[in-house]
Structures are given as C-alpha cells and as structure tokens.
Amino acid sequence: MPKTSDSLILLECLVAGTTHRPGLREFEPQLKAGQRLALQREADSAYDDWAVKVLTEGAEPFWLGYLPEGHNETVARMLDAGFPLTGRLTHKAWEDEWLHLEIEVLMPR
Question: What domain of life does the native source organism fall in (predicted)?
C-alpha cells in the first residue's frame, strides 16, 4: 500500500450505496482501516454518467459501493484518461443497517 507521502489524496468521501450491496454485512469483518481499494469506472451506468465503483483488491474483489454522485466526475475523468488511481479505507462503522465507509482516493506521485 502506498504511504500517504507517496500519494496525493484527491478526495475524501463516504462510499455510497453500501445498503444495496448483498453480503456486505457478512463481508464487513474482513475490511480493515488502511487497506487498499480498487476503483473501477462504470461508464455504462443508467443512473450516473460518472459512476465509479469501489471494490476490495485481490483475486475475488468485493463490490462495496460507489463514489458519491456529485463528487465523482473528476475521478471518473482521470480513470478514463488512464491515471492509476486507487482508494484506501480510512474508517468503518455501522449506523443501524448502513455501513459507513470513509475512503481516500489516491494518485501516486
């Protein structure tokens, strides 16, 4: 995982849509603050022209949700242009049935 000094933090935000991810309650114990996350452009989304999925990294990535609409256009454009952006989980907490995930979007220096 890149250290903060090795990367620029482009965005700090919550992950949207976690309440709609099947299996997230069971998967949540595997999520650890500081872990790297993958960002994947979803250009064909019917709901958001700038949709960016947030997933865990690894052989079997788990889809956590999306970057929030209204905060995702710059990241989507950079991914479309081939910039190697990643994410990092900074905090997680349950709030009733909602898994509150805070992340940073990172760009290597």
Answer: Bacteria
C-alpha 24/C-alpha 27 separation (Å) is: 5
What are the beta bridge partners of residue 105? Answer: 11, 87
Eight-state DSSP code of residue 15? P
Residue with tokens 């979803």: 42
Q: Is the pLDDT of residue 3 over 60?
A: no
Sheet containing strand 36-41, strands side by side: 7-14, 98-108, 86-95, 36-41, 52-56, 63-66
List pLDDT tens digits, range 30-87. Answer: 999 999 999 999 999 999 999 999 999 999 999 999 999 999 999 999 999 999 999 9
Q: Which domains does the chain have, with CATH numbers?
A: 4-108 (3.30.70.2330)
Relative to beta strand 86-95, strand 63-66 is: unpaired
The DSSP code for 26 is: H
